[in-house]
Each structure stands twice: as C-alpha cells, then as structure tokens.
User: Fold this.
Amino acid sequence: MDYNLMEALELLEREKGVPAETILDALANALVSAYKRTPGAAEEARVTIDPDTGEITVYGQELDEDGNVTREWEDTPEDMGRIAAQTAKQVIQQRLRDAKRDQVFDLYEGREGDLVTGIVSQSDHRSAILDLGDAEAIMPASERIPYERLDRGNRVKGYILEVRNEGKGHQIVVSRSHPEFIRSLFELEVPELVDGEVEIKAIAREPGHRTKIAVASTDPNVDPVGACVGARGSRVRQVVNELRGEKVDIVEWRENKQQFITEALSPARVKEVRIDEETGTAEVIVPDHQLSLAIGREGQNARLAAKLTGYRVDIKSESEDLGIVPEDEEAEAPAETEAAADGAEAPAEGETATDDAAEAPAEGEAAADATAPEGEAEVGDDGAEAAPEGEPEVADAEEASAEPTTDADAVAVDDAEEAPDTPTDDSEE
Assistant:
C-alpha cells in the first residue's frame, strides 16, 4: 500500500477521532468487494493489511456446505482496477460514517436530561439542526419555543430529550419547549440547586409565554426564592434571556395545600382556599379588585397554578362568594327604576305642565264631586285632557273659566274655587 494512504488514515484518526484499526477493517472489507469484481476472482475471499507496512494480501477461499473454509490460497491481483478502487473508496467513506455515528452514540448514550449548547446550522418550519461540535442534534418543530426565530449561526442551548439508535444512524433529539429545560437552565445559574440546598419541586410551563416553578429549601438558613432570583434578579435574568423574554414566576413550595395554592396564584392576593379532595378541586376566594389578576390574561395564571399544584382551580371574587351583585351590574336596574319613577312623578321638562295639569284637575274633580253637580266635573276632565298638549296650566284654567255660558255654570266654577276649604272642614269634623 502507498504510504500516502497510511498517512491519510493517521490524519483521519487524529482529526475525526476514529481509530486507525477501524479504518483498516473498513478498507479490508472494501477491498474484498473490489476483488470479487475482478475477472476470475474466487467466490469467497479475505483481505489482510499490515498496519506497519500497509501491505495488502488477498486470499481466495473455498467453502463447504456448512460454510467452513476447505481451501485457501493467495490471490492478490496485480492491479485491482479503477472501478475496484472507486468501489473501495465509497465503502471506506460509508464505513467511516458508520464508525463515527457509533462513536457519537457511545458518547451521548445515557445523557438524556443533559443541557447542551450548539450552533444553528440549518433551520426550517420542520426542524432545526444544531452543531454540537462532535455531533449534530435535531430539534423538531414540536420541541421548539413557539414563534422563536432560530437564525443560522445562532448559539442556543437545548435539553437532550432522546438519543435514538435507528437503522439510518443515530440521532440526538433536543428540546427547548420541555418543562425540564427550565430546570436545567436554573441548575446552570444557581449553585444551591446543584449542591442540594434548594430543590425545584414542580414546574408548570406554557412555552414562549410564562413559566411557574415551585422551589423548596433543605437548609432553613437558605431562602429558596431568593437563591433562584439572585442579587437584583441576576440569576433569573440569565434564564429569561435564554428563553427570549419568557416570563418566569418563582414561588415557594409549601406542605400545606392551601398555602401552596395561595403561593401558586401569586402575584394575586388570595383571601381563602377551600379544597375538595374527592373531586380534586380548589375553590379560591380573592378580593374583587384581585379577580382579573388571579385569573390572568386569557386564564393563564389560573391554568399554570392548576398545573403546578395538581388541583382544578376555581376562582371566585369575594362579592360573588357572598352572593352580592357587583355594582356595575346593579347600576343598570336602579337606573331604569328611577327613570320609570321620574317619568311618573317628575317627567321631562316639556311635560312638567302636563303632570301638574293632571294633578290640579284631580283636586278640582274632588271638589266638584263634593259641591257641584255631576255635569260640572266634565270641566275638570276637559282640563286634564288638554294638559298633555303641552299648554300651560294657567291657560287651561282660563279656558275652563271661559267655557261656562250660564249662571249655573258660573256658580259651579265659583264653588269649585272654594271647594278645597270644604273637604278640609269635613275632615276636621
């Protein structure tokens, strides 16, 4: 063999990390395939390569029915030909790729749950490819943060979700939307999590929008929330930056379920929590002005609290719990009632004279009934009918006084003017 080829194999070993023995085995198998293509070649053969000198020897073989070698002889061709060399080259390349994949699989097998950093080498609507340096990882569209843009050349972190051993090769699947990705990011920034002084008990996440984590401390001298937030929010800020601005709420985990649900609904303030263990439901009572904050935008805060605690959270305002109708709903009904009352007692400005005219004849009618004949009561009725036309009350009185044409009518009118005193005297008696 040409020493240039041996030097190339050594170079591949140094650069690609594939042992030279693996490459020589792949080359020997390739030469067997190339040998069988030469005229007069034996049906079976084996090839040996001296690792020191690079000398190649081909042995032809005869096999019995059981596959055992019955005869073997040296049958090294002087020139295996251009086609044989090309075939050997292709086989070598394929074996090198297989050897490389095997090496990558051995390197990443069992590393599910680890955090890796890679450079985006390819990205489309179906998946993104990350170059990890010694391997490539794939990030399916389902494992990406919604609406996150991964441009080529961007350096991003990923959570190793699975290492697959498939027929076409080994595949490393990473995720940025998995809830455990948040845990890995915090472990990178918070030493207390690695030391075991602080523990993340639960994680609830809506990728790209908001995340809630519940933390607890095994050391009474360590504040779990403060440890994760960091000085002036420096630790949690690093996590938020990696998540491209996704909001992260850190709450303290409590043994008491009511207290834990109260913490989970922060930043809203909770007045009371009632838990039904049989149905797994928690009824939460909050002040009226805290209702929208407790529910969150499109119910997000309540949903995350339910995921974090494991209970179905039903949020009610304090007024709703007491059965009090909110003021904004109650305002409409009284307004209509007052309008109706005002319409009967004090109508619109243009109708004031009408009501007054209606009331004034009423008194006149009472007086007419008491002191005047029945026919004179019609004057009051006419006055009551004339009032709705919007004419002033004084004008109605003048017209009414102008209508009588007989002395009897005039006397009836005079008696009607004096009539208010007569019922008063009767009532006093």
